Each structure stands twice: as structure tokens, then as C-alpha cells.
């Protein structure tokens, strides 16, 4: 039996609520029942209804339920990229043969995850094919918010004066690694900081809301890009790390990038999204190259309970 180290990324589910009585927004709240009820609704749908097809790839919530350890939930997504029909090549002889799959079929790609009940921490198996990621999970789940409207209305009746606002039943935050800030600190000059946010995204940031208000009347725009730049020759910006740490609702921003120069003079761009917190689990691999998913889930849970992540 062979073994393999599988990387696991750390994200976090939140279930934000608007406090109508105090006109405040609690964007760090996690109500496990509200999320679990939503995921159960999706996983129980007929397979044809819970497939999300974006034109060249498909994705579905294949399984979801409470783990053997009641402090955790576990599940899996299945995704595939379709549309390309090419020849297959043997790894030893390089003999080629025509693929027998159709244009509507793709290679099955199963990715497992664990959710910690008390915190909302999401531990997601790394997907080398980049089909099941934080962003694709977010898009997949948001595609099914409309089928959960009645349940959201009932939740709002039960939790008054709190309220689930439109499109904000959940959010997936990245638990960022300090390696991002360490890389930024090694730049000898910081020349540019850039971030993007969807034009219609709900956000508390007064900066973004001010920019959006100034663009009122513009049609056809779907993204706001906000940049801070130093154009002085040989100059550099300071305290950029603190700017990123202080961003309100940081997970609603996309493509946060710091650009500058290393000590060697070489230009470097450092992207925050490339630095989620992660760890690796050692699992068995069978003769077909398939890992033991139960070992992966058990390994994740044991690491989390031991506090060694």
C-alpha cells in the first residue's frame, strides 16, 4: 500500500445577520443550523436539479451529513470538466488511442471537506484540477439560494430583530496564512496595492460604498477595482500590510495583490488568495491511485481536535 500527503486548506463559513434594532451588521456570526439546513436541502435534491453547469464544467454536492464525530460535518463535491475529446496516451509505451468519452462527459473529480460544528471552520481537500475551490463552492451554493427562500423567511421570523439579508445567508472566508504578510515584508519597495469587488456585492466598507455611489448611473459595469499606487522613482509605500489587515469584510474582495520589488531588484506580485492556511494529512493510496477518503476525513478531524493546525 502506497501513501500520499494530501494538502488541506482552511476556510470558514459565516452566516451574517443584520441587527435591525441596533442598525448593525454582525459579519462574524456563525449559526450552524442555518447552514446545515441549507446544505441538507441541496444534497437531498434529485441529481438533475442539483447540478451546476457553467458551460464547460459541472459540479454537484455529492454527499453531506454529520460525521462519526458529532462535532463535525463531512461531505464531498464532485466536479468534471467536459467538452474536450482527445486521444489517450499510455504512460509507458506512449501508444495513443482515441478517447471513448463523449463531448458531454468529463473525468470524475471527488473532493472532500469537513465543517467544524462550533466554529464554521471549513477544511477543504486541495484540488489539483482547480475545479472545487473556495470560489467555485461559493458560486455553486449561491446558485441554489432561490430554492431556500421560504426557509430564509422562516428563519427571519424566528430570530427577530436579527435578519438574514438578501444573498447573505452565508459567506466563505479564507483563514489567511501569515506567509502572505511575510512575503510582503520582504519587499524592499512596495509600488502598488490592488483589490476588486463585485459592483453589486453587499459590503460594509465606506470606501467601496463611496466609490459605488460616485459611479451611480453607469451601466454595464460589474467590478470595482481600487488601487493605491506610488509612482515616485525609487519610492515605496509603507504600512500596506496594515491596510490589508484592516479591510472590512476582506473576503468580499477579490484579487488583492501587492506589487513591488525584491532585494535583487526583480519585480514581484503577491496575491493574498494564494495564501490560505493549510496543513497536510498522510493517507493510504490503493493500486488505482485513489486515496482513502475516510482516512483523510479522520485525519482532518484528529488534527483539528488536537489543535495542531
Describe the structure.
The structure is a single chain. The chain has helices at 32-43, 134-142, 149-158, 179-185, 206-214, 240-245, 293-306; strands spanning 2-14, 17-19, 24-26, 52-53, 57-66, 72-81, 87-89, 96-98, 109-116, 121-125, 162-163, 171-174, 189-198, 223-229, 254-261, 267-271, 277-285. It starts with a strand and ends with a helix. The chain is globular, with a radius of gyration of 22 Å. With 309 residues, it is of the alpha+beta class. The longest helix has 14 residues, at 293-306.
Mean pLDDT: 90
β-sheet strand percentage: 25-35%
Oligomer: single chain
Q: Low-confidence stretches at least 5 residues in length (pLDDT < 50)?
A: none
Tally of extended strands?
A: 17
Helix content: 10-25%
Sum this structure up briefly.
The protein is of the alpha+beta class and 309 residues long. The protein is built from seven helices and 17 strands.
Topology of this protein?
Layout (H helix, E strand, L loop, with lengths): L1 E13 L2 E3 L4 E3 L5 H12 L8 E2 L3 E10 L5 E10 L5 E3 L6 E3 L10 E8 L4 E5 L8 H9 L6 H10 L3 E2 L7 E4 L4 H7 L3 E10 L7 H9 L8 E7 L10 H6 L8 E8 L5 E5 L5 E9 L7 H14 L3
Antiparallel strand pairs: 1-10, 1-12, 1-17, 2-3, 2-11, 4-5, 5-6, 6-9, 7-8, 9-10, 13-14, 13-15, 15-16
Note the main attributes of this structure.
22% helix, four-stranded antiparallel sheet, alpha+beta, globular, 17 strands, 309 residues, single chain
